[in-house]
């Protein structure tokens, strides 16, 4: 089965689209580009005109939202519930306080000490009833992680449904597949940055993989290096026990939810992963690789 691929920049990361029918590559790319634009318009926290920002400016009043934004918020709340709040969409204000208040490509170095810590208001105060969304007054949501995963899942499904071919869609570390896979499965290189340990795995048709990293989106703030995965309980970046966590699951949303929560949970992540039964690969702060639940073993790695 022959494949064709396209790559482009989006959301300060790299999108990669692979289809099993080369003739469908351009129509598939148009579908994905439009889908990602719709997601951005719905929930970007960096766009003053996004639908989410408009809801935040409603000062705690209920707002009827589009089906797309409702789906994205529901996914974020699902992730929060599954992880006991380790993945909490209400950390937006904490992210702003850490200097991540614009696209990562425009986040500069801040040498001033951190003066104020901002805690999340708590995901349970976000109310979604069908298409009616009510946010706590003054809250600022960050749907970045879960929205990107949902976008990958939905984008791959759209392409498969419209073209009838197999598709892999990668948005940074979030990879979703749909339709038939090439012989031997979708071959995926798992590596956070070029100097980190690498491995290649085969993803079966319909499978998904997500990687959460404390290295890729990092910057200087308060005279120290910080990253974008915030512990909602402290309002600060999670300790860097893990440089990266990669999880395989049935959907990209599930994989991303678990990989992000593992960064927040630190040492407790390995036991939790074993309980969940999801294959995973974790690279620790000393560049040692840990694999669980049948993730393919790598030479010289810690089990």
From TrEMBL:
Catalytic reactions of this protein: L-threonyl-[protein] + FAD = FMN-L-threonyl-[protein] + AMP + H(+)
E.C. designation(s): 2.7.1.180
Statement: the UniProt record of this protein carries the keyword Protein transport: no
Pfam families: ApbE
Enzyme class: transferase
The protein's required cofactors: Mg(2+)
Keywords in alphabetical order: FAD, Flavoprotein, Magnesium, Metal-binding, Transferase
Superkingdom: Bacteria
One MF term in the entry's GO annotations: transferase activity
PANTHER family: FAD:PROTEIN FMN TRANSFERASE (PTHR30040:SF2), THIAMINE BIOSYNTHESIS LIPOPROTEIN APBE (PTHR30040)
Protein name in UniProt: FAD:protein FMN transferase
The species this protein was found in: Rhodococcus antarcticus
């Amino acid at each position: 089965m022959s494949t064709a691929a396209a790559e482009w920049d989006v959301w300060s990361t790299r999108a990669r689209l692979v289809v099993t029918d080369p003739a469908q590559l351009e129509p598939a790319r148009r579908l994905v580009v439009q889908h990602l634009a719709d997601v951005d318009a719905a929930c970007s926290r960096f766009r003053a005109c996004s639908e989410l920002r408009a809801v935040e400016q409603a000062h705690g009043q209920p707002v009827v939202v589009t089906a797309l934004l409702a789906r994205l918020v529901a996914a974020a709340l699902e992730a929060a519930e599954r992880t006991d709040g380790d993945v909490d969409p209400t950390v937006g204000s904490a992210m702003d306080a850490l200097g991540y208040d614009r696209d990562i490509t425009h986040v500069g170095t801040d040498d001033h000490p951190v003066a104020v810590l901002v805690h999340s208001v708590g995901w349970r105060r976000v109310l979604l009833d069908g298409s009616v969304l009510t946010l706590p007054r003054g809250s600022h949501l960050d749907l970045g992680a879960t929205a990107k995963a949902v976008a990958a899942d939905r984008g791959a499904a759209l392409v498969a449904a419209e073209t009838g071919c197999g598709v892999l869609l990668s948005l940074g570390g979030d990879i979703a597949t749909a339709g038939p896979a090439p012989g031997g499965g979708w071959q995926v290189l798992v590596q956070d940055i070029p100097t980190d340990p690498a491995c290649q795995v085969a993803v079966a048709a319909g499978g998904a993989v997500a990687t959460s990293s404390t290295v890729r989106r990092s910057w200087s703030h308060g005279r120290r290096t910080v990253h974008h995965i915030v512990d909602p309980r402290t309002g600060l970046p999670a300790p860097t026990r893990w440089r990266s966590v990669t999880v395989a699951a049935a959907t990209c949303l599930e994989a991303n939810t678990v990989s992000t929560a593992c960064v927040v949970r630190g040492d407790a992540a390995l036991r939790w992963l074993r309980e969940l039964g999801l294959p995973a690969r974790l690279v620790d702060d000393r560049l040692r690789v840990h694999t669980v639940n049948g993730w393919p073993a790598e030479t010289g790695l810690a089990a």
